[in-house]
Amino acid sequence: MIDTPIKTYFHLSFKIAFLASFGAFFVFSAVLNIHLPLKESMQYGFITSVGLLFVIYFVTRAYLKSRFERVHQLLDAIANKNFDEHPELLRLDRDELDRLIKQILATSAKVELEIQRLNRLENYRKEFIGDISHELKTPIFAVQGFLETLLDGALEDPRVNRQFLTKALNNLNRLTILTQDLMAISKLETGELRSELQKFPLRSVVNEVVESLQPTSVEDNISLKILPFDKEIKVIADRNQFKQVMVNLIENAIKYNKSGGSILVGIKPYTSNPSKVLVYVKDSGLGISAEDIPRVTERFFRIDKSRSREKGGTGLGLSIVKHIVEAHGEKLFIESVVNEGTTFSFTLQVSNPEILVSLSSGK
Ligand code: ADP
């Protein structure tokens, strides 16, 4: 508790009482002087105003003390971050002091929220730096190891020299992808990368992405198909970011699939909002357990670390997907059954929703 500044009450109350009784002395003396001689009137006037001085002093002092004590209680509560401790103070609205008290409360609550936000950001920053250093360590140490082994003599050994150089290069490629993903995620998380919404035909962009990933899926013996849909459907989204989402989802569907497996890309009506569609990527791969589903979109979360790394994964693909989808005000859904497969789907705003009637009627 802050010490009560007795002097403040004393000075203020005494000044008020003194001024009031000083004025009262002249008024009393003048009024009494109508019936009494001047000397006597001044004597009575003096006695009455001295009495008045004491009364005004004690009453004002008590009042000021109670008001100051409230402010002290409040400042104490604020210092201990108990913003809700004095709800009665928020209900009072008698004078300027009450308004000031309310203002102090409101401002302090805002400051506290801002401090909490900054603390969260600081924790996020620390965590992010920790994650990045951890992720960078593996490929950097691998490159270092291969180069040292080569310099220590393996360079002259034709059985391993090219193999070690290729491995060093693969790790450097991993570092490049990791850096690109890190730049993308940090821009998305700080809000630096804005979505530039435009209208574009969904089918042509889906075709483009699927065609570009066809060679990888063939290499892994996985069939990748689009279930045909009306090529007139136009969506409103950032074209490049949409392509990035599709690339990440289809690449994952290839990486976490089984040899001989399949991937289907298509669209479905979105029943909660008829002006949107659900774009989906369905695979027949390894699947994700129910407890891991909410975690796969976290930064650097991987179910099987070695499989992800071996396939060139950075652990950032799905968090980039989630950020992009949410930055568009859209939703991402994940359904999966372990060993049977996974379906990732997300909503997209359609610019010509009348065309979707054929989709919902199944034509
Ligand atoms: P990564 O670079 O490791 O692929 P992602 O963020 O893209 O990172 O995915 C996170 C993790 O989610 C992956 O490591 C993988 O374990 C799991 N995952 C993602 N997509 C699929 C999928 N289609 N099927 C099964 N598991 C998946």
List keywords for this structure.
363 residues; alpha+beta; Heat Shock Protein 90; 7-stranded mixed beta sheet; 60% helix; binds adenosine-5'-diphosphate
CATH homology superfamily name of the domain at 198-361:
Histidine kinase-like ATPase, C-terminal domain
Low-confidence stretches: none
Distance between the termini: 75 Å
Strand residue percentage: 5-15%
Mean pLDDT: 89
According to CATH, what is the topology of the domain at 198-361? Heat Shock Protein 90
Describe it:
By secondary structure, this protein is α+β, with helices and mostly antiparallel strands. The chain is built from ten helices and seven strands. The two termini are 75 Å apart. It has helices spanning 6-32, 38-79, 87-91, 96-151, 161-190, 202-219, 239-255, 305-310, 317-327, 357-360, and strands at residues 198-201, 223-226, 234-237, 262-269, 276-283, 332-337, 341-350. It has a domain at 198-361: Heat Shock Protein 90 (2-Layer Sandwich), CATH 3.30.565. The chain is elongated. Helix 5 (161-190) runs parallel beside helix 9 (317-327) and helix 7 (239-255) runs antiparallel to helix 9 (317-327). Strands 1, 2, 3, 4, 5, 6 and 7 form a seven-stranded mixed beta sheet that branches. Residues 248, 252-253, 255-256, 283, 285-288, 296, 301-304, 308, 313-319, 342 line the site of adenosine-5'-diphosphate.
